[in-house]
Design a protein that fits this description.
Layout: H1 5-8, E1 23-27, H2 53-65, E2 70-74, H3 84-93, E3 97-102, H4 115-121, E4 125-129, H5 135-142, H6 146-159, E5 171-175, H7 186-201, E6 207-210, H8 217-225, H9 229-238, E7 253-256, E8 262-263, H10 266-271, H11 305-308
Parallel strand pairs: 1-2, 1-7, 2-3, 3-4, 4-5, 5-6
Antiparallel strand pairs: 7-8
Helix pairs in contact: 2-3
Length: 321
Amino acid sequence: MRATLPLLRATDFPPLRRRRLETLQINVGYRCNQSCVHCHVAAGPHRKEEMSRDTAQEVLDFLAQSQVHTLDITGGAPELSPHFRFLVRGARDLGVQVMDRCNLTILEEPGYEDLGAFLAEQRVEIVASLPCYLEDNVDAQRGAGVFAASIRSLQRLNELGYGDPATGLRLSLVFNPQGPALPPPQAALEEAYRQQLGRRFGIRFNHLYTLANMPIQRFGSTLISKGQFGQYMALLRSAHRDENLDSVMCRNLLSIDWQGYVYDCDFNQMLGLPAPLGGKRRAHLRELAGRDLEGLPIAVADHCYGCTAGQGSSCGGALEP
């Protein structure tokens, strides 16, 4: 896989500083039951990186001593971590909201048949990847049979009460473009998803998030191999909007890797760009207890234009209506 960091380091992206920390996003490991072409983590079935029980406990210790209100759990397929349920229960016991970034097909893996019921019992918000409402497009990006498995999983989650405003069990879907293009307007695409998935499969959900593909890891390497990296970066830079800088996720979020080291976002984590929290070495989560991070600088590089291009893009979807 071709590294993209050397192509991204030199940048004129505007400087950013932290605000009050609200969300702790933890990557519990890079193992996944899928190998998607757009994956900025380069996750897959053969990845071995995995958060230990000790590091998982350090995450809970940090939550107990902080004002963080959301634990955002990602991977890989985060549910493959042997400590996933330990983290969920521990965070919920602390009164912290939990988000699970789910690929949906994990609910059909052997041994995970009760996963949906567990998530509903713990009132975990599910943010589920479904890059299109058309089968051919999803299977081309994520693998044969993924669309059908995803639909079955969504229907099962609906049966458990997810996506029903009366239950409060939140289910959001995530769209990624098929290639080196910006996502379409989020509101219009959400309505198309509602019509297509509701009419054809009876599926309901709360929101659709549109995310731009990041020119790093597997997707970045694909761009380089096809000679499209420079063209895609030119697209992102030309579509930059200064007003999106106020809402980028890194201003209120910390990203923690499977070993407990600290980054400004999951994208920086995959590039190996640690959060500049003082000192010359990367900081560990255990070192941040009781520390005020507001006002500290955020590490930026050229890939950051992926979050400010067009309507903007973050882990919470579009930044601008």
